[in-house]
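ping. complex inputs:
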Amino acid sequence: MITPKKCPICGKPAVEKFRPFCSSRCADVDLNRWFTGAYVIPARDDEPFPENGLPDADEDENF
Ligand SMILES: [Zn+2]
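pong. complex structure:
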């Protein structure tokens, strides 16, 4: 059983030709949102950024 996808813009059932949208107009609206920055790309905290100094800063203690 296939559940029809809904247009993320207006909520109407999506049309195959304009998936995932219901029309080219809604596809344009979505595109404009990207260009205007309405969609915020979620930043992830997975990236290992060292916050305290450099990783090899303590090497000199061996001497
Ligand atoms: Zn739509």
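Residues 3 and 36 are 31 Å apart (CA to CA).
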